Amino acid sequence: MSVCGGIVYGKAIAIGQTTEENVFMDIDFEALTIVNAQRGDREAWRNLFEWHFEPVYRYCVRLACGRQDVAEEIAQQVFVTAGRRINKYRAKKGMFRSWLLGIAKNRFMKLASKERRRKRYEARVSTESSKGTKGGSEEVFVYEALAKLPGRYRRVLEAKYLQGLTVNEIAENQGSTAKATESLLSRAREKFGEVYKKMQERPV
Fold first, then answer.
1. CA distance 26 to 38
2. pTM of the prediction?
3. 115-156 confidence digits (pLDDT tens)
4. Fewest beta carbons less than 10 Å away: which of 12, 18, 101, 177?
C-alpha cells in the first residue's frame, strides 16, 4: 500500500558534544501538544489537526476505495470525534495517529452499514483480490503500520519516503546530523518491518 502525505514536525536539540559527533535529544513535541490539547489549548489542537489531517484523509480515501466525497466526510467526522474525546486518549495504549485511524475505520464501517454499502464494498474487494489486485489492502496496512510507530520513527520515514527528502535535508529540518539521521532511519525501517510483518500475520 503506498502511503500518501506526511508532515515532519518536531526537532532535535543538541545537548552536548563528544569528540566524534554531537549528541542529540529528540523532543517529542507531539506528546506535549497532546497534553496541552487535553487541557483545552486550542492552538495545540490546531497543530494536531494540521499535522495529522492529510495522512488521515488519505487513509480514508483508501478505505473508501477512492471515493473522495466519502473520505472527506469520514475525515471531518474523525477530527470532530477526536476533538470531543481528546481526554480519553491514552498514550500507553498506542500512538495518537493510530488512535485517529481507529476512529476513521469505525466511522467508515458505521457509514457503510448505514448506507448499505458494506456488501458492495466487500464484493469489490473480493473481485479485486481474485484478480490479484492487492494494492488497496496493502496501502491500508502501510498506513496502519506507520501509525503504530513512535513519532520520531514515523516522521523520519514519512520525510524520506513520502516527501522524498534527502538525508541531509531531513537532518537540517530536525537540527541533527546526517550520520545521526541515517542511524535513525535504519532503526525506523527495522521497526516498521517488525510492525508490518505482525500485521500481515494477524487473522483476517
1. 22
2. 0.57
3. 654 455 455 555 555 544 445 567 778 888 888 888 888 888
4. 18
